[in-house]
Specification:
The chain is mainly β. It contains 1 helix and 14 strands. It has one helix at residues 128-138, and strands spanning 4-13, 18-24, 29-33, 40-44, 46-48, 51-58, 66-68, 70-73, 76-79, 90-92, 106-109, 113-114, 147-150, 199-200. The strands form 5 sheets. The chain has a 4-stranded antiparallel beta sheet with strand order 1-2-6-5, with no helix packed on it. A 4-stranded antiparallel beta sheet has the order 4-3-8-9, with no helix packed on it.
């Protein structure tokens, strides 16, 4: 059974379609389903250096709406987790182009090491994207940004994901030493947590809600 390694990440959305990115732990077909049959799509994973990614085109979405969705790998549901404390992940589509008076909200941020919003003692303050995700999770009716613009170097060659060992079964990875780095240095964007009291800023969905 394929497992979800990273994601889902809502990469793009327009008036009636969207693109969702995931990383699986082995080759499979990735699928997005929307309850009630309002939109969906699937795509096979592709492999890069032993990692298995999928860009899933989601079509048939209603205009100007928030549509809950789930992700399946190999036909099995993997997102949202059954014990998730967060509201459902949704795809928000844009309204008709004729609605020219609607403001466009842009959120600026950057992925870096930071302390979580809980206020743990740290020389680095809470991350703004963590705080935004917590606010949205606590109030599903709150205003959300239409666009997330991540600024910074965005090159993370000093810290990469583990590579599968030669001859290992699908989904296996080999340990890889991690370079030491300051707590204010850049980190790979995502929704994972790092060892210790620091945390990576969440650039999207999950596991904070999309």
């Amino acid at each position: 059974m394929a497992g979800l390694r990273l994601g889902p990440v809502l990469r793009y959305a327009d008036t009636d379609s969207a693109t969702v990115w995931v990383e699986a732990d082995r080759p499979c077909t990735a699928e997005v389903r929307c309850p009630g049959g309002e939109g969906g799509g699937s795509a096979p994973t592709f492999s890069v250096e032993g990692h298995h990614y999928a860009l899933i085109p989601v079509t048939g979405l209603p205009e100007g709406s928030d549509t809950p969705y789930e992700v399946r790998l190999g036909g099995e549901p993997v997102w949202p987790p059954p014990d998730s404390p967060f509201p459902p992940s949704t795809i928000r589509t844009a309204p008709r182009a004729s609605d020219g008076n609607r403001p466009v909200r842009v959120t600026f941020g950057s992925c870096r090491w930071s302390s979580p919003p809980s206020g743990q003692d740290s020389p680095v303050g809470p991350d703004a994207l963590d705080a935004l995700a917590a606010r949205i999770a606590g109030d599903t009716g709150a205003d959300r940004p239409d666009l997330l613009l991540l600024l910074g170097d965005q090159v993370y060659a000093d810290e990469t994901s583990p590579r599968p060992a030669a001859g290992s079964p699908p989904g296996a990875t080999s340990p890889k030493p991690r370079a030491s780095r300051s707590r204010t240095s850049r980190s790979t964007p995502g929704s994972t947590t790092s060892p210790g009291p620091t945390r990576r800023s969440a650039g999207c969905s999950p596991p904070c809600p999309a």
